[in-house]
Every structure is written in structure tokens, then in C-alpha cells.
Amino acid sequence: MKWYSRLKFAVKSAVTAWKNYTSSSDFSRWFGRTFWGIDNSTLATNETIFSVITRLSNSLAALPLKLYKNYDLATNQAADVLINSPNPNMTSFEFIRLLETIRNQTGNSYALIERDIRGQVARITPLDPAYVEPVIETESGELWYQVVGNNGTYYFHNLDMLHFKHIVGAGGLKGINPLKVLTNTTDFDKAVREFSLKEMQGAPHSFILKYQANVDTEKRKQIIEDFKRFYQDNGGILFQEPGVEIDPIERKFIAADIFTSERITRSRVANVFNVPVHMLNDSEGQSYSSMEQMMREFVQLTLMPIVRQYEQEFNRKLLTPAERQAGFYFKFNVNALLRGDTAAQSDYYTKAIRSGWMKPNEVRQLEDLPPEPEGDKLWISGDLYPMSMDPRQRKSSSSSKGGVGGGQD
After folding, report:
1. Which of 63, 178, 278, 327 is 20 to 30 Å from 153 at the Cα level?
2. Would the pTM of this model clear 0.85, i.e. be above it?
3. Region Disordered: what ranges (predicted)?
4. Cα–Cα distance for residue pair 152/155, rounded to 1 Å
5. What is the phi/psi pair of residue 389, to 5°?
6. Cα–Cα separations (whole angstroms), residue 107 to 85, 155, 167, 213, 240
7. CA 92 remoteness from chain centre
8. Are 247 and 208 in contact (CB under 8 A)?
């Protein structure tokens, strides 16, 4: 596609999006599909997979997301839409959690960036991945997204489509579905559970009846029927007659194999989703000196690659090249998950401020406290002075010159 064709198409898309944005908030105008309430049978019936996807999506959605300009907080229209109200139906938390849930269900999640007449981000709409297909335009070699709707097929350039995915195979454009990788695991786990359930439901109460004399087949059937009827009519109470012994058969409804199967399932699910197995409540064989170490492993090995993918998609597609060159960027604050207990955090902040590599207002910002007038300076213990102050003006030096006690700098 020639550059002028692409420009013409982009302008036409912007005008169409603007008309749609100003006229109605009904998303079916675009695609004629139901995108909400997606149900996946594996997610709905396997608590291990439900647990890991819930943990990943909630952890990502709960992270503070802000726009920065050269380390300082900033804002623009794209940030306002993304952080406060991606579309009229969702908050930012719901938006990111839905995208992450779908990404882990299907391997891919998509969100259409709708722009106003000025080309500014006006709305971001999650799409059902079943109706979205990445395609390469043969002439330009650029990536486009084909979206199938009731009223036809639409094509959107990759800069107008947020795409979050799991790892991609050789030559592919879509992420691999982790639930397909777990097909054998989930089938095995389901089979074990169904077998155990049938065992529990098949014969909840069993007994051994011993008679002192032999009885023929007909008499045996009559005795069994009388025994069952008496047991049912008397609420489970039995009377042991002379010459008859009744021994209940002990049944273990939860066999040891069930626990082994569940541990295997948790381990395989944790491997596929790249989550530490202790995050799925399996602590056997794990040794951590603190919760901080456990969270650090989860953040570094699991969350950071996901966070980086989201940040780069937001930066590339929601910010203009001029804004990026000016120093604008989106960033999740993962430090909220790495904080230790109160004593450890206080000690960390104290050392950071007294060593001169963190400003008091930076600490106050992390703790959601308002800034202080003198909090934007770096201080050094001495105790304490701005780093820009002449050492000769510090109290210890003045005291020594004046002959009033005190040590030397």
C-alpha cells in the first residue's frame, strides 16, 4: 500500500471513528458482536487455572499506572483515557484485568484505539479475539488487523490496535494459547476428579453381613432387600440380630492419589504460566525467609515481562513520536509489590534519604503523601544538610572554628 493510500485510509478511519464516537457509545455499530461475558469452559471448571489467571490479571490491574515526562508526572489526553476511563463502560482496572484475562485464556488480547477528528485517543475498546486476525499487507509488508463484523470486514493498522500476547512461535503473528499447551494436564485432572466423584456417589455406605448359617441365592437376595429397606426406613440405624454380624466398610472419599494429582496439576500450570508454584498455594519444598523474597521472585520472573509488554504497547501506540522524543512514557509502579514490612521499609527510606540518593518528596510520593516545600532537595547526613551547601557552612565546621566543641568534617 503506497504512502498516500495509507494516509487517505488513516484520515478516513479517523473521521469515521470521530462520527461514531460523537453519535453513539454502542460498540455494536462497529462489529455487531458481543464482546463481554466471554466464558471459557476450562477457565470456568478448573480452579487451578482460574486461580493463576485471576492472580495474574488482578496483580497487573492493581499496579499504579502513570504517564511520566523525564521522571516527572505528566498528563495528556491519551493518559486521561487510559488511566481514568478507557471507554464509557469500563474503569482502567476493569480494562487491564479483562485484557490480561483474555490474553491468558486465548494467548492473545486486542483493544481497538478509536481516535477523534484531531487524531487524539478518544476511546479504547477490548475486542473478542475470535473475530480478530493479524495479517501482513503484501505490498508494504506492514501489519494490519482484520476484524470480522456483522456488517462486513474491517482492517486496522497495527498502530490503531493494542495487541498483548504470550510467546509467539517461529513465523507466527499470534501468541500461543497456554490452555492448549495444558490440554493433557487438564484432561487428566478432570478424569481423576470425575472418577473420584463416581466412587463417592456409587456406594456411600457399604456393609459386610455375616450369617452363622449358609443361605441359598433366593434367601440371600431377600435378606439384602430387607436390610436395605430397614436401613432406609430407620434413618441409617441398624439392629444386629443374634447370629448376624454387621461390619461397615470404611471408605476414604479422598484418596492419596488425588493429592498427588493436584500437586502435579499445580506444578504444570505454574510452569506454563511462568508463575512460582507457591503462588498457587503449594508450599511443599519451598523455603523463603520472608514474604518479600517470595514477591520478588513473582515480580522479577513473572510480572516484569508482562508489564514491559504493556508499557511498550502503550508507549508506541498511544503516544506520538514527538511525545516520545520529548520524554513522555507510561510506566507501571511494581515497587508497590516489593515493599517489605513496616520496619524494613522505614529503614530503606531512612538510608535512601540520609545517603543522598533519594529525595524526601520521592518517598512521600511512593507513600501517597503530599510534597513538602523542602522535600525536593537531596540531603546528606551530617545531620542533615543539602548536598549543594558549602561544607564550611555546616554546623560541625563552624563549631570547630569558633572553638565550641564538635568534630571535624
Report:
1. 178
2. no
3. 364-409
4. 10
5. -70, 140
6. 25, 21, 8, 68, 63
7. 14
8. yes
Question: How far is Cα 99 from Cα 127, in angstroms, rounded to an integer?
Answer: 9
**Is 70 exceeded by the pLDDT of residue 378?**
yes
Return the DSSP state at 381: T
Q: Which of 88-92, 181-185, 247-251, 290-294 has the lowest mean pLDDT?
A: 247-251
Sequence length of the chain is 409
Distance CA 195, CA 307 (A): 41
Choice among 27-41, 164-178, 318-332, 394-408 with the minimum mean pLDDT: 27-41
| Residues 332/326, Cβ–Cβ less than 8 Å | no
Least confident of 45-59, 71-85, 113-127, 221-235: 221-235
Interatomic CA distance for residues 184 and 318, integer angstroms = 40
Residue 189 CB: number of other CB atoms within 10 A? 22
* Chain-centre distance for alpha carbon 158: 24
**Dihedral (Cα; 253, 256, 261, 264), 10-degree rounding:** 150
Domain ranges of the chain: 3-177, 205-250, 341-409
Q: What percent of the chain has pLDDT over 70?
A: 65
**Per-residue cell: 254:** 479422598
Q: Please state, in angstroms and as integers, the Cα–Cα distance from residue 266 to each residue in 14, 273, 304, 339, following that order.
A: 47, 11, 22, 27
Q: For residue 53, what are the CA distances in angstroms to 125, 135, 153, 266, 314?
A: 21, 28, 31, 13, 22
Cβ contact 149:30 at 8 Å = yes
Ranges 142-156, 171-185, 237-251, 327-341: which has the least confidence = 237-251
pLDDT at 39 over 50: no
Residue type, 16: T
Burial track 295-306 (b if 16+ CB lie within 10 A, e otherwise): beebbeebbeeb
Condensed to tens digits (0 to 9), the pLDDT of residues 172-184 reads 899 999 988 887 7
Do 181 and 49 contact (CB within 8 A), yes or no?
Answer: no
Whether the Cβ atoms of residue 46 and residue 182 lie closer than 8 Å to each other: no
Q: Write out 53-90 in H/E/C secondary structure.
A: HHHHHHHHHHCCEEEEECCEEECCHHHHHHHHCCECCE
Does 72 sit behind a cis peptide bond, omega within 30 degrees of 0 on the bond before it?
no
